[in-house]
Automatic annotation (TrEMBL):
<keyword id="KW-0809">Transit peptide</keyword>
<dbReference type="GO" id="GO:0005743">
    <property type="term" value="C:mitochondrial inner membrane"/>
</dbReference>
<keyword id="KW-0408">Iron</keyword>
<keyword id="KW-0472">Membrane</keyword>
<keyword id="KW-0350">Heme biosynthesis</keyword>
<comment type="similarity">
    <text>Belongs to the ferrochelatase family.</text>
</comment>
<dbReference type="Pfam" id="PF00762">
    <property type="entry name" value="Ferrochelatase"/>
</dbReference>
<comment type="pathway">
    <text>Porphyrin-containing compound metabolism; protoheme biosynthesis; protoheme from protoporphyrin-IX: step 1/1.</text>
</comment>
<dbReference type="InterPro" id="IPR033644">
    <property type="entry name" value="Ferrochelatase_C"/>
</dbReference>
<dbReference type="GO" id="GO:0006783">
    <property type="term" value="P:heme biosynthetic process"/>
</dbReference>
<dbReference type="InterPro" id="IPR033659">
    <property type="entry name" value="Ferrochelatase_N"/>
</dbReference>
<dbReference type="GO" id="GO:0004325">
    <property type="term" value="F:ferrochelatase activity"/>
</dbReference>
<keyword id="KW-0456">Lyase</keyword>
<protein>
    <recommendedName>
        <fullName>Ferrochelatase</fullName>
        <ecNumber>4.98.1.1</ecNumber>
    </recommendedName>
</protein>
<comment type="function">
    <text>Catalyzes the ferrous insertion into protoporphyrin IX.</text>
</comment>
<keyword id="KW-0627">Porphyrin biosynthesis</keyword>
<dbReference type="InterPro" id="IPR001015">
    <property type="entry name" value="Ferrochelatase"/>
</dbReference>
Length: 430
């Protein structure tokens, strides 16, 4: 089980180095004065600004944010290099620039084999571009006042990178003195500072670099892009409906007399306990999605939430998906349906880890099954459009929840980017 044993290989790769993989969460060192400053800024809640509903006319850019994945095996090394360079995902402190590439290089051949096994690359770009385009077509119809809607994709670790998306936005006539409205739409339904938080910090960084720091002019306009954020949507009814329909479809594959005893195993990407204990909202929001889906199903079946894809030797949030499947089978429960609940399209965690490893090695491929990922599901794409329309109608810049930092957050990036997105001004006259 390559992914599950990956921690040992990683710690081997970094052993002997001053700050190892195992200390990724404790590498920041603060002096007393810095701590006092941090304590003050940590507690700051930045109230979101309400936008003037009448002023937001099209064109409107809708930017799908996600982690991305290598489209070919040749892109794996760059993907992993970017991923291990991301201090919002894997904080390696002052050794980030040294340790990051080292771990990425060591890991590349193994991960290349996994992408080769699922057809030579991640399908996430194909699905994201399709979902964004189809959603914009629906949005043009249901929200003519903000049309035309232009789809963009910004990945954190693979093409199209955030900076490539931003350059395209500028080339397409947004910003650069022309203003215009853009919605940063996370494609992670549940918020984690390591995923959506990282993408927003990156977007804020490129916004500062490519659009400068121009303050509001006398008329309130500065010609930069007016950003708003859809930062989480764990219980959106269209999302819940799409998941529920896929589960119902899968349950039909079991004989009627066994159907209501099939155990539903929701599986989400895990988080290191250091991130959970920092106060990350993700576990609660994943739990909320699971509960909403079960409510929609009328609690027809027994269910559990488990977590997959731990990397490195630190403690991660459990129970592990692979272990849960093995233990239920050992207890005699062989009818199991796996439901990837925290990602909206296929990726190595579904196509390789769940299909090839967890199900493939369970010895019960005929009774342990996985529901389809949302991918091009029309119910899901309509949900995305409804969600975007409600956001555009609401006039809010981001959720109230996004303005609050984790209790133990010490990151200046989080502080500044939250301040920026929560404080985006209205754009009168546009
Ligand atoms: C909601 C989804 C995800 C969360 C939360 C998440 C947190 C998280 N991930 C790592 C480390 C790695 N993740 C890797 C790949 C990867 N991660 C997700 C999703 C979430 N990660 C996906 C969908 C993928 C695969 C992308 C694809 O194209 O298929 C990897 C690289 C693969 C590997 O080397 O095993 C690492 C490393 C951490 C540390 C973390 C939380 C802090
Ligand atoms: S880590 Fe959660 S807000 Fe900074
Ligand atoms: Fe991950």
């Amino acid at each position: 089980m390559a992914l599950r044993h990956s921690g040992r290989a990683l710690s081997k790769a970094t052993s002997g180095l001053a700050s190892s993989w195992s200390s990724w969460s404790t590498t920041l060192r603060w002096k007393p004065a810095q701590i006092q400053h941090q304590m003050r800024t940590m507690a700051t809640v930045v109230p979101p600004v309400t936008q003037d509903k009448t002023s937001s006319k099209g064109p409107t850019a809708i930017v799908f944010m996600n982690m991305g994945g290598p489209s070919t095996t040749d892109e794996v090394q760059d993907f992993l290099s970017r991923l291990f360079a991301d201090a919002d995902l894997i904080p390696l402190g002052r050794l980030q620039n040294y340790l990051g590439p080292l771990i990425a290089n060591r890991r590349t051949p193994k991960i290349q084999k996994q992408y080769a096994a699922i057809g030579g690359g991640s399908p996430i770009r194909k699905w994201s571009e399709y979902q964004a385009e189809e959603m914009c077509k629906i949005l043009d119809k249901i929200s003519p006042e903000t049309a035309p809607h232009k789809p963009y994709v910004a990945f954190r670790y693979a093409h199209p990178y955030t900076e490539e998306m931003y350059e395209r936005l500028l080339a397409d006539g947004f910003g650069n003195g022309k203003g215009g409205r853009a919605v940063a739409f996370t494609q992670y339904p549940q918020y984690s500072c390591s995923t959506t938080g990282s993408s927003l910090n990156e977007l804020w960084k490129w916004r500062q670099r490519l659009e400068g720091k121009s303050g509001p002019l006398d008329d309130g306009r500065d010609g930069t892009i007016q950003w708003s954020v859809i930062d989480r949507w764990p219980v959106h009814e269209g999302l819940v409906e799409a998941f529920a329909q896929n589960i119902e479809k899968k349950l039909e594959e079991y004989p009627k007399e066994r159907r209501d005893k099939v155990v539903l195993l929701f599986s989400a990407h895990s988080l290191p306990m250091s991130v959970v204990n920092r106060g990350d909202p993700y576990p609660a929001e994943v739990g909320a999605t699971v509960y909403a889906v079960m409510q929609r199903l009328g609690f027809s079946n027994p269910y559990r939430l488990c977590y997959q894809s731990q990397v490195g030797p630190q403690p991660w949030l459990g129970p592990q998906t692979s272990m849960s499947v093995e233990e239920y089978i050992a207890k005699g429960q062989k009818d199991l349906v796996l439901i990837p609940i925290a990602f909206t399209s296929d990726h190595i965690e579904t196509l390789y880890e769940l299909d090839e490893e967890v199900i493939g090695e369970s010895g019960h491929k005929d009774t342990v099954k996985r529901v389809e990922s949302l991918n091009g599901n029309p119910v899901f794409i309509k949900a995305l459009a409804d969600l975007a329309k409600s956001h555009l109608d609401s006039g809010i810049t981001c959720s109230a929840q996004m303005s609050l930092r984790c209790p133990s957050c010490k990151s200046e990036r989080c502080l500044e980017s939250k301040k920026f997105f929560a404080g985006q001004q209205t754009l009168p006259g546009k």
